[in-house]
Amino acid sequence: MRPVRLAYLVTHPIQYQAPLLRRIAAEPDIELTALFEDDFSTRDHIDHGFGRAIAWDVKLVDGYRHRFLTPLRARPVGGTTSFWWPLSKDLGGILRTGDFDALWVHGYKTANHLSAMALARRYGMTVLLRDETNADSQPRSALRKTAKRVAFKAMDRLVDTFLAIGTANARHLMELGIAPTKLITMPYAVDNAHFARNLAQADAAGTRTRYGIAPDQNLILFSAKLIERKRPMDLLQAVAALQRETASRPALILAGDGELMPQLKEAVQNLGLRDTHLPGFQTQAELAGLYAAADVLVLPSEREAWGLVINEAMNGGCAIIASDRIGAAPDLVQDNGVVYPVGDVAALTRALQSMLESDARLERMQQRSREIIAGWSFEQDVQALRMALDLPAR
């Protein structure tokens, strides 16, 4: 019996997805071909969120079959993905002649992806859709909410199975009218094995020494783009209050870059914050050292469809504090952390104080992070995909 021939359509190679695609390609009864609409992420490029040129330190297109589609028109200068870009002139022909059994699409908000799903349905292929949307992932007016429900009613006729990334995503899909029987949870995971290797090589003590953090000093970590939506200023204010009100003096590292960097540096001075560092953009290897050194990761964003940094930090054994707008929180923040109301700096301060006042409690949370994330991995993703393709569990 020949393997299931699966086409995977996505805008570009993504650092978090590449190892998952390699893992899927290793399945003997799945013949995967990734179809990329653009190749910008394989080169040094400007990330407008980080406000600088970046290059990922992971291999994005090795270890699995792939091809880059031919664009109908060139990428707009400084442009990002929109409904009408990218469009691929050869996508229809590839789907028609590729002898695929199934099409798996990541994201639905482009004409290219919607037409691909319609064509796949026409050619008798199984259609799978995975997207990150949840009720709080972006602000929506009543009109936009109505339009989204109408759009999903139409997509429901094209899609055989929706691959939910977690609880918030699944709940939102059902709110949009998708039947629970059409949902399979394919967890939004990172490469736990890769992080385990990086963490095994990480020098936590050396990282602390580099930043002047004492061995017995608690370290709070933020790792994200320094932009308004991530609300890093909330964390600065909470740590400032903590340093004023308690005898302990926790250190803080805000890893990342972006438009708020100048204001954050000024706020560090104005708030009188001690032991606070803003090292800029960090590669995954550099982040592993920070995760190994940190006690707590805080993600205070006002909108976050998931928040894969939580997965990463849990691999490093960090306890987690997340706002209630983080998509990952219902699944990953359990007895290993605290969820607080977004924008409530006093609640964030209390959560930090409670977490750091007991070494034993903190250690239990850190151990629970490791235990929880061990069950939220690529292996669960592969089993979910096999179920969606009507293949037996392995």
Walk me through the structure.
The protein is an alpha/beta fold. The protein has 2 domains: 4-189 and 377-388, Glycogen Phosphorylase B (Rossmann fold, 3-Layer(aba) Sandwich), CATH 3.40.50.2000; 192-374, Rossmann fold (3-Layer(aba) Sandwich). It is built from 15 helices and 15 strands. It has helices at 18-25, 91-97, 111-122, 142-156, 167-175, 192-201, 204-210, 232-245, 261-270, 284-293, 308-315, 329-332, 345-356, 359-374, 378-388; strands at residues 4-10, 30-36, 45-47, 52-54, 65-68, 102-106, 126-130, 161-164, 183-185, 219-223, 251-255, 276-280, 296-299, 319-323, 337-340. A 7-stranded parallel beta sheet has the order 5-2-1-6-7-8-9. The protein has a 6-stranded parallel beta sheet with strand order 12-11-10-13-14-15, sandwiched between helices. Helix 11 (308-315) packs across helix 14. It starts with a strand and ends in a 6-residue tail after the last helix. The model has no long low-confidence stretch (mean pLDDT 93).
Please outline what is shown here.
The chain has helices spanning 18-25, 91-97, 111-122, 142-156, 167-175, 192-201, 204-210, 232-245, 261-270, 284-293, 308-315, 329-332, 345-356, 359-374, 378-388, and strands at residues 4-10, 30-36, 45-47, 52-54, 65-68, 102-106, 126-130, 161-164, 183-185, 219-223, 251-255, 276-280, 296-299, 319-323, 337-340.
Give the class from helix and strand content and strand pairing: alpha/beta
Outline the low-pLDDT stretches: none
Strand order of the largest sheet: 5-2-1-6-7-8-9
N-to-C order of helices and strands: EHEEEEHEHEHEHEHHEHEHEHEHEHEHHH
Largest sheet: 7 strands, parallel
> What fraction strand?
15-25%
> What is the count of distinct domains?
2
Gyration radius (Cα, Å) is: 22 Å
Count of separate DSSP helical elements: 15
